[in-house]
Design goal:
six-stranded antiparallel beta sheet; UDP-acyl_N-AcGlcN_deAcase_N; about 475 residues; EC 4.2.1.59; lipid a biosynthesis; six-stranded mixed beta sheet
Length: about 475
């Protein structure tokens, strides 16, 4: 049975300090309408700018250490370390919520997602009269970063499950495994309480980078992986602004802090992964296998999954039944493109990454009307029509979930570097690959190549504009 979307019944707030910025902050969760999604709002800024919790807005640059948390930016507005908040929302299956912040980072509280979970449960959860949307993994999806030793696999299944392994090559921690098989039954008790952690040797370096300004020994599990003398401990306390006593202890955890689970670090890494994959903007049906994940790799994998979701969403919009190996059949193409006989020159779209890449095919038959006059004794497809066929594939490439195609037209503004390499004749199948080069809101530049039996027959760069019909 299809589940309904969910929001909360009333506003709730929580206060604390951001772990990296050290800013005092108040987070307020508010109900939102169906299909609103999860959206951060900076109420401390003029006009209260919004940042949707989507992977398109994730910051990835040298100035932000994305290995220590996930940050979002829209325009000049930023929100840092959002993963615990998003994990709490996913864990409670809350689809639509306004997340107000009066600073640029949510409070860290105890370093887990549990304080957010408790507040959201206090607010109450309400079903909405709209079905949830899902990303359904239909065939294995693989991602690997050999340099970091990271590997992800998404496998088909009818639920959201995660199996995870960490291995820091550090004798103080070693390898750990964990797995979540039911959000409803396991998230609150088994994963939401798992706290963030770091190694003792990392703390000074993090402080030197201007991070963990709001951290203290109660907001993280610190794993002791090297001895410190009294002078070093005092220096560290001074750098972190800690007044309480600090001892290395004998348990392997700073101050002998008790772990909430024997594999709490692995469980927290799974919690982070849930929060980062929330940035796909959709509920996931898949078994996720993750080896040595971190925020950077989580986000890279989330981008892959979001692109698959965008493709599925467009396919469902224009095609009632998905055919194996085909994204859009001719009936779907006729819903997207305004062209009709004798000028519709695409038979199917077989690959699509919205706004990135599209591959279409055109089966060239002897019955094409242009063969009657274009060399009747030796029929050859006019080069201008090959370019037109590529342009039509390019028109589909411009699709995204926001474009109302029924009310839009694609006009081509110019072509560069057009080259015809071989003739195209009856019986050939044109395979046309279009790649986005530049995307500037309403104007675009694409590179197109057409092949027959793997041989390049035509290539061109095209500029286009999307206009109202």
């Amino acid at each position: 049975m299809t589940k309904k979307q969910r929001t909360i019944k009333r506003p709730v707030s929580l206060q604390g300090r951001g772990i990296h910025t050290g800013n005092d902050t108040k987070i307020t969760f508010k109900p939102a309408p169906p299909n609103y999604g999860r959206v951060f709002v900076r109420v401390d800024l003029e006009e209260k700018p919004e940042i949707p919790a989507l992977v398109e807005y994730v910051i990835q640059n040298d100035k932000i250490d994305s290995s220590r948390g996930t940050s979002l930016q829209k325009g000049d507005v930023q929100v840092h370390t959002v993963e615990h908040v998003l994990a709490a929302l996913v864990g409670l299956e809350i689809d639509n919520v306004i997340i107000e912040l009066n600073a640029n980072e949510p409070p860290i509280v105890d370093g887990s997602a549990m304080p957010f979970v408790n507040k959201l449960l206090e607010a109450g959860i309400e079903e909405q009269d709209v079905d949830k949307e899902y990303l359904v993994i239909e065939e294995p999806v693989n991602f690997k970063n050999e340099r970091r030793g990271v590997e992800f696999v998404a496998l088909p299944t009818d639920a959201y499950r995660i199996t995870l392994m960490i291995d820091y090559k550090n004798p103080a921690l070693g390898s750990q495994h964990t797995g979540l098989f039911s959000l409803e039954e396991e998230f609150i008790t088994e994963f939401a309480p798992a706290r963030t952690f770091c190694f003792l040797h990392e703390i000074e370096a993090l402080a030197d980078q201007g991070l963990i300004k709001g951290g203290d020994i109660d907001s993280a599990v610190v794993i002791v992986d090297r001895p410190l003398n009294k002078e070093e401990i005092e220096r560290l306390k001074k750098k972190l602004g800690v007044d309480d006593d600090v001892e290395l202890g004998a348990s392997g955890i700073l101050n002998n802090k008790a772990l909430r689970f024997h594999n709490e670090p692995a469980r927290h890494k799974l919690l982070d992964l849930i929060g980062d994959l929330a940035l796909t903007g959709v509920n996931i049906k898949s078994q996720i296998l993750a080896a040595r994940p971190g925020h950077q790799s989580n986000i890279e994998f989330a981008r892959i999954l979001r692109n698959i979701y965008k493709k599925q969403k467009l396919t469902r919009k224009f095609q009632d039944i998905s055919k194996k190996g085909i994204v859009f059949d001719i009936d779907a193409i006729k819903k997207i493109l305004p062209h009709r006989y004798p000028f519709l020159l695409v038979d199917a779209i077989i690959e699509l990454e919205p706004e990135k890449r599209a591959v279409g095919i055109k089966n060239v038959t002897v019955n094409e009307p242009f063969f009657q006059g274009h060399f009747p004794q030796r029929p050859v497809m006019p080069g201008v029509l090959i370019v037109e066929a590529m342009a039509q594939v390019g028109g589909i490439l411009l699709l995204n979930e926001r474009v109302d195609v029924e009310n839009k037209l694609v006009y081509f503004m110019g072509m560069d570097n057009v080259r015809f390499r071989k003739v195209v004749q009856p019986g050939d199948q044109l395979v046309m690959e279009l790649e986005m080069l530049k995307n500037r809101r309403t104007t675009f530049k694409m590179a197109g190549k057409a092949y027959v039996r793997g041989e390049l027959v035509c290539e061109a760069e095209m500029m286009a504009a999307v206009v109202d019909n």
